[in-house]
Amino acid sequence: MKRDLGVFGPGVYGVAFLLIVVPLTDSVLGVLPLRLGQAAWRFGSLGLLSRALMTPLLGLAVAMVMAAYLGQRRTLRSLSVFAFLAAAAALGAVILFALDALQTRATVRPDVTHTFDKASVEALLKYLLDALVAGLLGLGGWRASHAPKAAHHAEDGIVTARVVRPHTASAADRSP
Question: d(Cα 136, Cα 170) in Å, to the nearest integer?
Answer without folding.
Answer: 45
